[in-house]
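Side project, low priority. Logging it here so it doesn't get lost.
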Amino acid sequence: MSISLNKGQTISLSKDGGRGLTKVFMGCGWDPAQPKNSGFLGGLLGGGRVDEIDLDASVILYDAAKNVVDMVWFQQLRSQDGFIEHGGDNLTGDGDGDDEVIHVNLEGIAGKVKYLVFTVNSFRGQTFNEVDNAFVRLVDDTNGKEICKYTLTEQGPHTGVIMASMEKTGSGWKMTAHGKPAGGRSAKDLVIPAAAIL
């Protein structure tokens, strides 16, 4: 059964008596916000759908000292060790379900990696006032079962959000929902603020 995370909540990702997950994916989704006058009358008055929203999901990898080890984003769709892979860029946000997916082989990740921080940015500079229903969800990639989901409820003039992080501990991985607004149009702009939440 999937867990709906609240902002700031942390859960353990160990299962089956302590055996950890091996392969997961982080799915991210969003929709273009609807103007307040987007009903029938609004359509007649020209208050239709907001332009397509191009958000970019990324993951930043840090070591225990919070130094960047690697990054997977729209300019590098695969980690240097090959164990994290981005499913590709969605330019609109249209459609149901995950708009972008990042696959993670937790067993293969380099031993020096302690943290994975998942971010979402607006490359075109559109703000989160123009975004509805933004979420991240963690799924067991071996059986397709959703483990947990965090839905972003806050809008605002920012162009980036630090959505969630995963930390490797002695007993396995744990995940924390953040939903922290940030500036910047790419994951590179969030390297320092993302490290600050760890």
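Brief comment: Residues 3-196 form a domain with the Lipoxygenase-1 fold (CATH 2.60.60.30).
Revisit when time allows.
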